[in-house]
Structure formats: C-alpha cells, structure tokens
Amino acid sequence: MTKRGKRVAVSLLVTLALLTTLGIGCGDENGGNGGKVEIIIGHISDMTGPAATALVPINYAAKDLAKYYNDNELIEGATIKIVEYDARYDPAYDIPGWEWIRSKGAKIGLTALPTTAETLKPVAARDKMPLWALSYSEVLDDPAGWVFLANCPNRGLINPLMKWISENDPNFPTDRPAKVGSAGWNEPYAIACKNAIQEYATAHPDKWEYVGGYLAPTGAVTWSSEVIGLKDCDYVWPPSTGTGVPTFINQFRNSGGTATFYGTDAQEAYMGLIVDASGWDRIDGTLAVSPTRWWNETESPIVDLALTLLETNHPDEKAEFMHAGVGYVGGFHQLYALFDVLKQAVADAGGAENFTSQSFYDTAQNFSMQWPTYEEWTLEPDKRYTWNYVGMYKWSKADQDVVRTEEPWYTIYVE
C-alpha cells in the first residue's frame, strides 16, 4: 500500500463555525447558482423499490448538504446541484441511469446501491467519470478504479465485531464455540457478509462454529429453510435490506430461535421498519458495528450538523427520519466526505471554472480527513475505501434506541 496522502481536509471546522448563521436561501432545492459554475452530481438511487425505506432519507441528506454548501458559499465560485435517477434496485436500470445523469451534465456519480456500483465500475472507467459509492464490495476496491467507496470492507466490519463479541458479550458461550450463521438476499452485500462470517469463524475454531450462510432471491420474504438451518445458532446475521429483515426476524423468533442478532449499519438503516414490524422484544440486544456515529451521539459535530439541517429543512419529517434508522445521519457522514473531497478538488483545479471529472479523481485518490471525535479516514492510489475505524453498538429495548457500547474506535482489519 502506498503512503497515506498528507492532505487533511479542514473544511468541517470552517463549516461548523457557520452553523450559527445557517442560511435559508431562495432558489431551487439545491440553491440557485447566482452566475457561479454549476457542478452537477448525478445520484442513482432507489426511490420506489425494496431499498427505498433506507435510501430516500439519503436522497434528502444529499440535497440538504448541497443546499448548505451553496447557501454558505463553501466552494468558491461554484454551486452544487443534485440530479436524481430512480434505479429501483433493478440492475436493468443501472446503465440507463448512468447515461441519464451524464446527459444532465453530471461530473460525479453517486449511489448507495451495491449492485449499481458493481455494474458501473467499468463504465465509469470508460467514461472517466468518478462514482462515489456508499456500499462496499471487493470488486469495487480491487483493482482500484474510478469508484470511490465511502465505507469499508465487509471483513473490516465483521472481523472486529466478531472478535469484540467473543471477548465482551456476557452471553457468549464459555464452554464451547459459539454457533454462527447468516441469511440474506442474493446480492453483493449479503454475499460478502456471508463469506466474511464464514472466513472469520473458520479461522477461529476455538471461538466459533460456522453453521451456514443462506442466500434467497432478492425480494424474498419467506425464510422457511433458512430458519430451519439457523434455528440452533447462538448468533445470526439477518438479512440487510428492506422487507427481508423483519420478515426473517419474525419467522426466526416464531420458530423458537433465540440467537442474538448481529449486523452493521446496513440493518440499522431499516431500524424503523424492523421495530414497527417485529417489536423491540424480538430485537433487543442486537449487536452492531458501524463506521459512522448514531443519532444520539450529539457530541459529534457531524451528527449535530445533520440534526440542524434536518430540523431546518424538514421539521415535520425529522422524527420520521430519525425513527427510520441510520439512513439520513449515516448517509450524511458519507456525503460530507464526498463534499470535502469536491471542495479540495475545486481548489486543486485552480477554481470552479477549471473543475472536471478528472480533477475529482486526481484529488480523491490521495486524500485524508481528520474529523473531530473521529479517527482519520483515507483514500489512496491503491485503496478506494474511506473508513479505517469502527464503533460497537447495541439495540436496546430499555432505551428504545441504538446505543454505543463504549467509546473507543476499533481498527478495521482483514485477515
């Protein structure tokens, strides 16, 4: 791996100082361009498909952050505009979506859909237009290309989580290895998680006994064979997308399964759906790992800013978005990273009038940031994922919320 980039973004400190004078400008929802250079980000999302519950809040966060940057003139000589395309979590719409955002003048692509990012990796390289992806998969990271990942490897999440569970969970068996398995839809994120769980358990047979990983067709809500196969587990990784999560949880608990559920910020993105459909009794004690902070961690300037913009722009929807899960605040972290790279790229290009897709690519592949109350994240010429550290969380019925188990950040690692 090459030496880390030395450039450390400082725009967060500047923007936080502007919080007290947060502007509510006129013009369109992204802010009017006022004669400035308009930089367009093309957002390929799911607005009406199975992942819409988690991704629609991210759409709001993207536009809110663009408006914030525009209102406060945080990128000199430029305004940011977000254009959106509904890919419906259907791979058939990925390339048409890419061509559509390019036709609208996009210089940067954006997506939270892992299937979309995988489809578009060679297309982004062909067109030399960067794609900022909010989900990780190995094919996006290796070899390095024109896709930049505001996330970290699945194994980088699962390895420290499983290690933490074996060392800290009071319910972890002391006289035998813990039985572990997973279920999910047959899509890149669930596949990568299944493989990571199997690899870690196999490498630590003194702590874990791997029972199996089950993949159902995308959109499935019936989990009969998966529940039977995983019923006797101590720990189960449930599906991570849409209706697949609560339907599996309900069927697993109804069968008598008592395993502790564990997961990442992927399941947290559907917290409201899960709580409403399954109830706290069925998910209390779920253990989770996340590279970004939760809504209640207001000591974080990033969380505080997200709450401020949500209250300013969507006061009637604030409670709904917070109940929905990590979508808005987690996506906000990932998008703020994008905007800080963009700000530096414009400066490196010598001004907004000189900014191109190549400018973003050149800056992004050698960039680092140190946020207050976070550990440093980095992008490098041969490392396309951002976060290097994660925190541990628990779903708590008593708190009716997700709570951090302890403050330290844990270094991600891939064995």
Overview of this protein structure:
By secondary structure, the protein is an alpha/beta fold. The protein folds into two domains: 8-152 and 294-384, 3-Layer(aba) Sandwich (Rossmann fold), CATH 3.40.50.2300; 154-290 and 391-411, Rossmann fold (3-Layer(aba) Sandwich). The chain is 41% helix and 19% strand. The protein contains 16 helices and 16 strands. Strands 7, 8, 9, 10, 11, 14, 15 and 16 form an eight-stranded mixed beta sheet that branches. Helix 2 (52-71) links the parallel strand 2 (37-45) and strand 3. Helix 13 packs across helix 15 (327-348). It is globular and about 65 Å long. The model is unreliable at 1-31 (pLDDT under 50).
Write a short abstract of this structure:
By secondary structure, this protein is an alpha/beta fold. It is built from 16 helices and 16 strands.
* Form type: globular
Structural class: alpha/beta
Class of the largest domain, according to the CATH hierarchy? Alpha Beta
- Assign the CATH topology of the largest domain: Rossmann fold
Gap from first CA to last CA = 16 Å
Radius of gyration: 21 Å
Helix content: 40-55%
Strand content: 15-25%
CATH superfamily placement of the largest domain: Response regulator
Biggest beta sheet attributes: 8 strands, mixed
Calculate the mean pLDDT score and round it. 90
Question: Number of DSSP strands?
Answer: 16
CATH architecture of the largest domain: 3-Layer(aba) Sandwich
Question: How many domains?
Answer: 2
